């Protein structure tokens, strides 16, 4: 039998890969004061064990003002200009590179879903596109305010600085997290953005923040080291999904990115990463009949990572549809440090243990077994 596309090499942006199985970004809340720990070095190095695999890091704060998670703030890594942070990432990245694999760091600003008191401890405000909190967040509703235009420009600059730091630490690229109801996605969605300036009020304007970040980061480090993640069908954190509005909104974003690439191939992003309608945040979902990523796939002619609810069979089938699709695995990568080896050899997969997704220490993190080599 010929090798399925999933296990064939592909060049994604500047990175040569040996296969099309990608480790999806997975928050694991085990950093120490925003510094990736030695345990993280072990965890990522394990998952890089098949040479030529692309790993996307857990979501990583671009700056202290971009965080604000109640109860787990310091457990999320950062990538701002702090010597210990950069040194921590260097160790993780050296581990991944020692196995011959690649890493993109996922750049994160959580915007309005942060906690006001946590942000105040570092002297920052709770901000979003508009003074709209997610439904049920009474504390957020009291405090959240709209970013001013100069503040939006500063945010874009923070993404640029973070991307440069990621490369300084040795990363192969960065993924801009424009999915799952975080800051760029809050701008994209009409129900979290009621601005009347150039950042709201129309499809073009709601897309502007994400596109400005993408353009600025690409100009700084090269588009062949930049990917972006979108979740058109995710309702997580109060993002509205709507038959009339979602499709044109996200089509526009894909069209804009394809347009930039057509004008100049140097501006082609290394990939777009899109979440399937059968995943919503960190859980499964039942897609509605009108929810499909095919319209976006027909617009964007570059490399595409599709993630959400894949198993071996559906991953092979989907990667077979063309010669530019990669498949992101989330939960199976948590539970299988040698996932690529197991998929290639059709070996049984370990099921994930949900209670230890976010707990401290090695349990459920570095203690999942490798399959015995045949
Ligand atoms: C524990 C956990 C943490 C996650 N953290 C992130 C994250 O940091 N950034 C992100 O974009 N998605 C995150 N996700 C979503 C995954 O990347 C992925 O889209 C989702 O798990 C669906 O894929 P799967 O069915 O292969 O698990 C997380 C999912 C889980 C289960």
TrEMBL record:
Belongs to the NADH:flavin oxidoreductase/NADH oxidase family. Residues 5-349 form the NADH:flavin oxidoreductase/NADH oxidase N-terminal domain. InterPro entries: Aldolase_TIM, OxRdtase_FMN_N, Oye-like. Transmembrane segments: none annotated. Its cofactor is FMN. This is YALI0F23661p. Pfam families: Oxidored_FMN. Keywords: Flavoprotein, FMN. It comes from the Eukaryota. GO terms for molecular function: FMN binding; NADPH dehydrogenase activity.
